[in-house]
Amino acid sequence: MKIEQSTPASPLSAVKEPGKQEGKAQGTPGTFAQHLQGALDAAAAERLDARIETAQRKASLTGRGNLGEAADLEKQKQQLRQASQELEAIFLQQMISVMQRTVPRDEGILKRSQAEELFQGMLDEELAKIMAESGETGLARSLYQQLVQSLEEKQKAKSET
């Protein structure tokens, strides 16, 4: 995981130094929290980019090889099915994540910690995978059907030439 090296403020600057004014020490923890949130957001974006790249790689593998072989066609269909499910999971994870942000969390006795937010993101990701695997939303199924139709049309065009 790559985290940006440029920090707006040193985490150690949150420690009150002798001779510093109270007003300056109070502003620094907010800066650290913002930096930490930025690092968490960057890590989540990097995970999302990696998942999208993996799905694209799997989808691009389906276009290679000899389309005339039935076994190869079935393998390509299986790869398309997996890529479709992964794309649906990514979409659902983004949707769940945005929905979670609309829920007010600061109200109540306990404040929400950075660790809780991190684990909530991982929980959202797993929920999205389970939802995509269930097939209830139908997004992966529709995407798969369109891609298989395109793949079969390409196979027919190659066999005719």
Topology of helices and strands:
Layout: H1 22-61, H2 70-101, H3 114-134, H4 139-160
Helix pairs in contact: 1-2, 2-3, 2-4
How does this model look, in words?
With 161 residues, the protein is mainly α. Helix 1 runs antiparallel to helix 2 (70-101) and helix 2 (70-101) packs across helix 3. It has helices at 22-61, 70-101, 114-134, 139-160. It has four helices and no strands. The protein has one domain.
Q: Estimate the strand proportion.
A: under 5%
Mean pLDDT: 75
What is the terminal separation in angstroms? 48 Å
Question: Treating each run of at least 4 consecutive H or I residues as one helix, how many helices?
Answer: 4
What's the order of the H and E elements?
HHHH
Helix coverage percent:
over 70%
What is the count of structural domains?
Answer: 1
Shape: elongated
Q: If you compute it from the alpha carbons, what radius of gyration comes out, rounded to the nearest whole angstrom?
A: 23 Å
- Structural class by secondary-structure content: mainly alpha
- Poorly predicted runs are 1-27
Instruction: Let me know the number of strands.
Output: 0
- Major sheet: none
